[in-house]
Amino acid sequence: MPSLFDPATEATVRQRAARLTPASPARWGRMQPAQMLCHLVDAFRVPLGESPAQYKWTPFRFFLMRWLFVHLLPWPKGKLPTMREFQQTQPVEFQEDLETWNAALTRFVARGRQLRPEWKPHPAFGALPNWEWGRMVYRHIDHHFQQFGV
């Protein structure tokens, strides 16, 4: 599975984001493109420690359950509620939201490429090793970019 910490994967993700427009239609769910970008910004800010999170016990704290959900099973489309922690940032103006997303991606990738990066735990998955952050956040971005056809 691709990781955001791979330079080629990061470049591809940025190219896909550049194709997103305010009018990109959602294939599922209720988010608009700017809302999705803000949601992804929050998904960067929590592990970076820039945004507080309330940690919950879930079965996904077990490696096998997390592995199935994050790496193997298809992600549900529009069926799971978005965690409160990932709904903090509100859209401003599309281009500004895209720039905020790019800046957050830059901070996340820079942290992940450090020798011993420190991450805050995921609210549902708990403490994750660096390699898992890189793959899981890539898959999250890919899920939402597919939602908007980019």
Could you characterize the architecture of this molecule?
This protein is mostly helical. It has a single domain (7-147), classed as Four Helix Bundle (Hemerythrin (Met), subunit A) (Up-down Bundle), CATH 1.20.120. Helices cover 50% and strands 0% of the residues. It is built from five helices and no strands. It has helices at residues 7-18, 33-48, 63-72, 94-112, 130-147. Helix 1 (7-18) packs parallel to helix 5 (130-147) and helix 2 (33-48) runs parallel beside helix 4.
Show the helix and strand layout:
Layout: H1 7-18, H2 33-48, H3 63-72, H4 94-112, H5 130-147
Helix pairs in contact: 1-5, 2-4, 2-5
Summarize the structure.
50% of the residues lie in helices and 0% in strands. It is mainly α and 150 residues long.
Structural class, judged by helices and strands? mainly alpha
CATH architecture heading: Up-down Bundle
Q: Which spans have pLDDT < 50 for at least 5 consecutive residues?
A: none
What number of domains?
1
Query: Distance between the terminal alpha carbons, to the nearest Å?
Result: 19 Å
For the secondary structure, the number of strands is 0
Order of H and E elements = HHHHH
